[in-house]
Amino acid sequence: MFRTVAELLEKTKKDNQSIAEVMIFQEMDLHDQSKEEIINRMDKNLSVMEQAIERGLKGVQSHSGLTGGDALLLQKYLETNEPLSGTLLLDAVSKAIATNEVNAAMGIICATPTAGSAGCVPGALFSVKERLNPTREQMINFLFTAGAFGFVVANNAFISGAAGGCQAEVGSAAAMAAAAVVEMAGGTPQQSADAFAITLKNMLGLVCDPVAGLVEVPCVKRNAIGTSNAIVSADMALAGVVSKIPCDEVIGAMYRIGKQMPSSLRETAEGGLAATPTGKAIAAKYYRNSEEDV
Amino acid sequence: MVKYNSVFDIIGPVMIGPSSSHTAGAVKIGRAARHLFGGNPVFADIHFYGSFAKTYRGHGTDVAIVAGLLDLDTDDQRIPNAFQLAEEQGLKFHFIEENTAVNHPNTVRIKVSDGKESLELVGISVGGGKVEITELNGFNLHLSGNHPAVLIMHNDRFGAIASVTKILAKHEINIGRMEVARKDIGKEALMTIEMDQKIDIEVEKELRKAKHILKIAKIVD
């Protein structure tokens, strides 16, 4: 079992396998299942992601009314405009938002690695798909590659906002997506690691400060920007830009920063944006309304 | 020991939003409480600590715990309507927000009863939908939920452990991890056994009949 990104890369070299293959073989070993069984399980997760995006792009609304409809707004903009940030990037953003809007509306999603950060990996995957035209198998491999990096983060640091802030959640998700985009675009395992490191470095210190304790504001938009961060970082790595700080050390830094974060900034809705006048007003209004509901 | 051992802990679970720790994890803890209780609970006191206490309403942690107590799974579309479902099934519940400092920010204590039997457990939701049961009826546990497990309440007498392991050995079931705890010498004790495979109903029946065994609960995931 690999415990670090360095060990993961070592395994790809030694066994002449892709990152996705290393992850699949480890999983076969763990569950004592065939390759087909493991791949079929991931295929189901992929279908859930696809359906969530489809649903979100049609426009959904959360119970609180705080989020919903932005994915649709972006798709309409894409139909009539040449976005300044590029079509692929904004398509990725709209698909990430679609997923998180469905999540906020208590719809069905696949946690990647968490529900609050569920938009980054599918957002990146389904936008890059339009450009690279991958096979279904390559799309499934994308999830195994993302999962391999997430596996290292989860076991060496944390992936939940309550434990390590948003850097642990959307930070990890975005970095996982970046690594998988690189592999799908034909980059090396080392370039995947560089893309992961570059993304996470730019998410370090991000706090978890959900308004009213809802997974809506700022969570949905953080997934949007996390996804664009992933694609830009992937391009940087594919161009040959390397991370001066190795991947495992960036994960270590994320862990130490998370440990130093006060609990008010770790999913308690007591600090940051949740504590702004507007954030507090939204919370007061929401809880007044939900008490009337009961 | 690694906290996460499968890629499906990272890419997954498939679940009803909005939070893997505060919604899906909460469903799993509620469900564990129901399975360990082994019947339909009629009353449930649900104590929230840390981040759970501050944000349970926004994250739907309250409906999620109740959904779990009703034996719904994390991807069940009825989760948002769990309160109504509870009323239909005769489960009364209430929530208590605790201010006590706890080791993990996502901690919940659940007391369930049906008027005759009762059970109390503490669960933590560690992130991405992974949970651990850390306390059961006052016993400390380290139940990861990574493997099928049986929890066996027994009398603290010599031979009680041997009678259980003998049955498992006979059915060629390998024990991955085992823990024994007791409240006091000769009193009620708890065996936690994590195994490599699930046990079938026949093995369970045999275990129930074994010497000094009081109660058995299975956790399968």
From TrEMBL, chain A:
Catalytic activity: L-serine = pyruvate + NH4(+)
Pathway: Carbohydrate biosynthesis; gluconeogenesis
EC number: 4.3.1.17
Pfam families named among the record's database cross-references: SDH_alpha
Gene Ontology biological process terms from the UniProt entry: gluconeogenesis
Family: Belongs to the iron-sulfur dependent L-serine dehydratase family.
Protein name, UniProt field: L-serine dehydratase
Organism: Natronobacillus azotifigens
From TrEMBL, chain B:
Catalytic activity: L-serine = pyruvate + NH4(+)
Keyword Thylakoid belongs to the record: no
Classification via CDD domains: ACT_LSD
Biological processes per GO annotation: gluconeogenesis
Molecular function terms from GO: 4 iron, 4 sulfur cluster binding; L-serine ammonia-lyase activity; metal ion binding
UniProt KW DNA-binding keyword: no
Keywords, in A-Z order: 4Fe-4S, Gluconeogenesis, Iron, Iron-sulfur, Lyase, Metal-binding
Pathway(s) the chain acts in: Carbohydrate biosynthesis; gluconeogenesis
Top-level lineage group: Bacteria
Cofactor(s), names only, from the UniProt record: [4Fe-4S] cluster
Pfam families given in the database record: ACT (PF01842), SDH_beta (PF03315)
Cross-referenced PROSITE patterns: ACT
Start and end residues of each ACT domain: 149-221
NCBIfam families per UniProt: sda_beta (TIGR00719)
Family statement: Belongs to the iron-sulfur dependent L-serine dehydratase family.
Protein name as annotated: L-serine deaminase
Species whose genome carries this gene: Natronobacillus azotifigens
Gene designation: sdaAB
